[in-house]
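Handoff note, outgoing to incoming analyst
You'll be picking up this chain. Sequence as last confirmed:
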Amino acid sequence: MAQKPSIPKGTRDFNPETVAKRNYIFSTIKQQFERFGFQPIETPSFENSDTLMGKYGEEGDRLIFKILNSGDYLSKVDEALYASKNAVKMTSRISEKALRYDLTVPFARYVVQHQNDITFPFKRYQIQPVWRADRPQKGRFREFYQCDADVVGSKSLWQEVEFVQLYDAVFFALKLKDVTIKINNRKILSGIAEVIGAQDKLIDFTVALDKLDKIGAEKVKEEMLNKGIPQSGIDKLQPLFVLKGSFADQIIELQAILSDSEEGKKGIEELEFINSAISELGLETAFLELDVTLARGLNYYTGAIYEVSAPKGVDMGSIGGGGRYDDLTGIFGLKDVSGVGISFGLDRIYLVLESLNLFPETITTTVKAMFINFGTKEAMACSKAIKSLRLAGISAELYPDAITSNKHMKKQMNFANKSNIAFVVLVGDAEMKSNTFTLKHMNSGEQRTLSIEQLIDALQ
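Most recent structure output, in case you need it:
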């Protein structure tokens, strides 16, 4: 017996219903991107390895899918290297390309490569798949889509304000209520590290702090101690571990903690500007919340950082995130081009909408009307009518196999039911003679005999 086919772990097949629901999310996000003035671009599925490697840290490099060179890829490997079985050194000889890990680094490459053709500030959006050689688990896949929007070439904080509004607009359009947009600023984190004497351990400090809501204050303190952050510095952080209250209340506490840090005070000023603007503009469905423990893993953020949480009661991680990066294009030689961007987590948004039953019922409808196939002459009459319906913007189809018995008639009706087709159209001898069509509503069983004009009106 032939072995049953399978797909690689961490990848998925999507049935028509799932694709329709995913496309609904894609189209909603795309519509809002364009309303906010973002333009679409696309970059290749794979990049030159040197474009990607070294941009995500050691852990990120490990998760990049490498592509073997075509042809005799081992010919460039000398005997000594081959015998050493050093995979890291050998990879650079046998693989010159890799699948993209995210959309941000390819975007930075795009900006640098096409800088003479771009008008700055440049607002782009990108909805494409990315690949990571991660260990598959619930909610984590090796192939998944990212939905990104970025602005490069402007340091204005109005861009940060716009991204808060963009998040709000997308979730409002998806009818997703009570979403929390958490915000922080890397300058505040740098300022705190400065105050506690841990400037040289900023990454260790932020990684530990980011775990506060997951492992608790004591475990975070323990991790910081293990990373070499002095106890005296950790003691100064005590107010941070219990920091709560409104945006304004937390700002007052931060001003006291960061009174001796110019960098930290700059971060506070930036957050105050964003919060003040949003308070005046208002949000439709989201809440803006200050979270000083928010660090996010990517080290290239330099200003505001975002993370979006699903509504309370929905067991889900973040459904979006992003932030300001002052010199991302510098990794490719173009200095001092500031940018800010956000991303939407498609798969998690899908699960949230599914759990809250927020997908419109109509999006999974395939065909509005199916014509029963009684035979060759009738099929031709049906096909002419179907052409008229399609020209009028109505989806319709003819069942391909003709009826030769009552069993086949039942088969066609069952097909319409299983396919969630709302109407069937019957064209037999009587309808052929009178040039009419019998329209049957599959749920109610109601039947009407109509002209082609009436049929179009009824289905529209």
